[in-house]
Design goal:
Layout: E1 12-17, H1 22-26, H2 28-36, E2 40-47, H3 60-77, E3 81-87, H4 112-126, E4 130-134, H5 143-159, E5 163-168, H6 171-184, E6 205-208, H7 213-222, H8 234-239, H9 243-249, E7 252-256
Parallel strand pairs: 1-2, 1-4, 2-3, 4-5
Antiparallel strand pairs: 5-7, 6-7
Length: about 280
C-alpha cells in the first residue's frame, strides 16, 4: 500500500518499549497504521515483563507467557520483527520508585552505554528512520520507562536515527476525566497524574488512529495475563469499553519530538516539519 501523502517513502520504524503490553497502550494504533502504509515496523522490548502482576507467579514462566502474548500482539499490528533485549524486569516498589528486590540483571541497573549500543545495532541493521521511546520521566515514572528514554536517546545518537518520538499521553483531558471520576470516588488520588506524561502544549504529534481501533484492541486483548485476575486491571477495564466509544477514546496517539518550535502540530510520525 502506498505511503501517506504526509509521510516519507516507506521506511522502517522501531518502537522501543520496556515491557510487553506497553506497546498496546501507547503506540499500537500508530504501529498498525505504519504497517498498513507499507512501512516496516519493528518492536523491541527491553524485558519480558516477568515481574508484572498476573495470575501466574512472577518469574521465568510469566516472562515466557508475556513474550508469547507480545508476539501475538505484534502479529495483530503487522510488525515485521520482534526483539527482546533480554534485561530483567526491574519491577516497581510499593507506591512507586525502584524496587529493592529487583533481579541482578535489572534493566534499570544495566550499563546505559552498552544497552544503547545493542539497540543502536538494531537501528543500524534496520536502517531505521524513526525510533519511539518515552519522555524523560518515563510517562508515569516506572524506572524501566525512564531507562528506555535514556537508552533510546543515546542509541539514536549512535545510529544516527533522524526522528525520535517520545510516546506519551495528553494529560490535560486525562486529568479532567480523572477529576470527574473523583467526584464519585473521593478515594481516587489524581495527584500522581498532575505531572505524568505531557501537557497538550508539549505535544508535537497527534496521530489519528481511529481506523486501526480494531487492531489496537486486538493488541490489548493479546496480553491476557495483564487483562485478567482483577476487576480493576487497566487493560481489562479498557477492553470492556464498547467499540464505538473505544474508537473515540483511543483514537489518538500522542508524541513529543524535541527541538521543534513551540506549537508544532503534526499528524504523521514521518511528517516533515515546516521549515522557517
Amino acid at each position: 500500500m502506498a505511503a501517506s501523502p504526509t509521510s516519507r517513502p516507506p521506511g522502517t520504524a522501531v518502537f522501543f518499549h520496556a515491557h510487553p503490553d506497553d506497546e498496546a497502550l501507547l503506540t499500537a494504533g500508530t504501529m498498525a497504521m505504519l504497517a498498513a502504509e507499507g512501512h516496516r515496523v519493528v518492536l523491541v522490548v527491553a524485558t519480558s515483563g516477568e515481574r508484572g502482576q498476573a495470575d501466574i507467579s512472577p518469574g521465568e514462566a510469566l516472562g515466557e507467557a508475556r513474550m508469547a502474548e507480545l508476539r501475538k500482539s505484534a502479529a495483530a499490528l503487522g510488525c515485521s520483527r520482534v526483539v527482546n533485549l533480554g534485561y530483567g524486569d526491574s519491577g516497581l516498589a510499593p507506591g512507586g520508585g525502584i524496587a529493592e528486590d529487583r533481579p541482578p540483571n535489572a534493566f534499570i541497573d544495566a550499563d546505559g552505554e552498552e544497552a544503547a549500543r545493542r539497540l543502536a545495532e538494531i537501528l543500524t541493521e534496520e536502517e531505521a528512520g524513526l525510533l519511539t521511546i518515552y519522555d524523560p520521566a518515563g510517562g508515569y515514572g516506572h524506572p524501566d520507562h525512564v531507562q528506555v528514554n535514556r537508552v533510546g536517546s543515546r542509541a539514536a545518537e549512535i545510529a544516527g536515527t533522524p526522528i525520535v518520538l517520545e510516546a506519551t499521553v495528553n494529560r490535560d483531558p486525562l486529568l479532567r476525566g480523572l477529576k470527574l471520576v473523583g467526584r464519585f470516588y473521593p478515594q481516587l488520588d489524581t495527584r500522581a497524574f498532575e505531572r505524568a506524561y505531557a501537557s497538550g502544549g508539549e505535544i508535537t504529534h497527534r496521530v489519528n488512529v481511529r481506523r486501526f481501533a480494531r487492531q489496537k484492541r486486538a493488541s490489548m486483548a493479546a496480553h491476557a495475563t495483564q487483562a485478567t485476575g482483577a476487576d480493576t486491571r487497566t487493560l481489562g477495564v479498557m477492553l470492556k469499553i464498547p467499540h464505538p466509544l473505544y474508537r473515540l477514546v483511543f483514537g489518538t496517539e500522542w508524541y513529543v519530538r524535541r527541538g521543534l518550535p513551540s506549537g508544532t502540530r503534526l499528524r504523521h510520525p514521518f511528517e516533515v516539519p515546516p521549515q522557517g
